[in-house]
Amino acid sequence: MKNLLENESDLGSHPVFHGLVQDDQSYESISSESIPTHPLGIKPLGNLYLSQTPNARRNAGSLQALPDELLMPMFEFLDKTTLLRLSSTCKFLHAFCRSDELWKPLFIKSYVRNPRQFQWLGTWRRTLLKSTGGRESSVDCSNVYSDVLHRPFACTYIDLSKYVHIPESNQIQRFPDLSYAEFAARWSSTPFILTKCIQSWPAFGSWDISSLREKYAGVDFRAEAVDWPFSTYCDYLYNNVDESPLYLFDRKFAENMGINIGRENNGEYWKPDCFGPDLFELLGDDRPAHRWLIIGPKRSGSTFHKDPNATSAWNAVLQGAKYWIMFPPNVSVPGVYVSEDSSEVTSPLSIAEWLLEFHADARSIPECLEGICREGEILHVPSGWWHLVVNLENSIAITQNFVPKSHLSSVIEFLRDKPDQVTGFKDNITNPWALFHKRLDKYYPELKGRAIEELKVKARKKRKWDFAIGTDDSVEGESGGFSFRFGGDDLEEE
Ligand SMILES: O=C(O)CCC(=O)C(=O)O
Ligand SMILES: [Fe+2]
């Protein structure tokens, strides 16, 4: 047998999948039985060790010198015609040029430029080629070894049941319902799930994917960058092989479906009483976007983020089930990289990759909370909490963001001190903080005063702390000279 290790450049490494993997073996955390053969025959890189057939990479000309991790982003610059041409040069490049990760953005770009009727045909490539008059060939790529190409395919077979066995100590608390007094006194900074809170909503029990399809087949909903008729989105939902499925996340659903919201309006749903007054209601129509209809297939979901403008949120599941993993605001979440001013969150991984690579570490962080929010249940996301969500089944949810009295100071701080990170306001609202400030002064002057005072105390503490650890000397004047503040001088005593 040829010593395949003589050419080290054949082998690469990937942060998620290491080592030898055969069709009858398993990637770590994806059980072997559940991964079928890749439709083109592409194999994980580790299989090269045992392979006796020639490596297709050898026929890729000078491109063979580049790692797969570089080829893929380079090919993202190619248009449809060039991808098709390149795909007919050799099997190795054919395998790359067939990747739907390249065809999805091409379809979306072409659709956004030219929205049109089309039929979803199971893959982005097939759908784009059909709708623009191309064709699809079948090529055996069984001597192509690449984690970059095989991994997204394998990730679509991730066994989510592994994550839903939640250790007792990490369980998000569950209650039938809560009163506002209980929420305000104890629960506004803690995630929880209510199991008997939304049963009286007309939407509960009557909204499922097929009933919505019957009623709203021709109505457009926003899914990431595209607006698709609901019937098209359903075709996609039931028949796609994407590692990160397109997620319907629509904030104009109420207008477009022609439904009412609110108990007093005979609405399809209303906000639960337990969260109390929502201070962004003071902004009337000028409040930032705050409600979304969320629909997606199993495996779709939301990668780690904090909700906008330091708002809190609730998320009610009308069909399906969602797995949530959450961390308090100051915890650094494994695999999630945040810029110095928190303006950018980089989580370079898909949900499946994050689960495979980081979930075990994350779960062992003491502050980690996890829960499954099932049909008929509603989950509370406190202001500033990190969360990742994955749908365990095809799901429908409604979410609303709000500002409870107990988090007013966080929202004021965000609007006032991070104006460049404020999102969701209409373009004509040039100074959201000034507007909110004015409304608070009019309707809740005392509450606003207390929140501002809280922020002053917090800022003073932070200055003292920065001074104590040597990153700020502006306190020197105030405190009359340098002193170590560890031990004895309790910062909490302010
Ligand atoms: O249902 C989900 O995917 C979570 C949605 C979410 O986190 C959000 O709307 O901020
Ligand atoms: Fe969120």
Q: How would you explain this protein's 3D organization?
A:
This protein is of the alpha+beta class and 494 residues long. The protein has three domains: 4-98 and 139-155, no CATH class; 160-404, Cupin (Jelly Rolls); 444-493, no CATH class. It contains 15 helices and 15 strands. Strands 1-2-13-8-15-6-5 form a seven-stranded mixed sheet, with no helix packed on it. The chain has a four-stranded antiparallel sheet with strand order 7-14-9-12, with no helix packed on it. Strand 1 (173-175), helix 7 (180-187) and strand 2 (192-194) form a beta-alpha-beta unit. Helix 12 (408-417) packs across helix 14. Fe (ii) ion (FE2) is lined by residues 302, 305, 307, 313, 381, 387. Fe (ii) ion is lined by residues 302, 305, 307, 313, 381, 387. Residues 260-419 form the JmjC domain. Pfam families: Cupin_8 (PF13621), F-box-like (PF12937). GO terms for molecular function: cis-regulatory region sequence-specific DNA binding. Residues 60-106 form the F-box domain.
Task: Compile the SSE list and pairings.
Elements (H helix, E strand, L loop, with lengths): L67 H8 L4 H8 L3 H7 L2 H14 L10 H8 L15 H9 L17 E3 L4 H8 L4 E3 L14 H8 L3 E4 L2 E4 H9 L9 E3 L2 H5 L33 E6 L4 E5 L6 E8 L1 E7 L9 E2 L6 E2 L4 H13 L5 E6 L3 E4 L4 E6 L3 E8 L5 H10 L14 H12 L1 H24 L6 H5 L15
Parallel strand pairs: 1-2
Antiparallel strand pairs: 2-13, 3-4, 5-6, 6-15, 7-14, 8-13, 8-15, 9-12, 9-14, 10-11
Helix pairs in contact: 2-3, 4-5, 12-14, 13-14
The structure holds 2-oxoglutaric acid and fe (ii) ion.
The site of fe (ii) ion (FE2) has 6 residues, from strand 7.
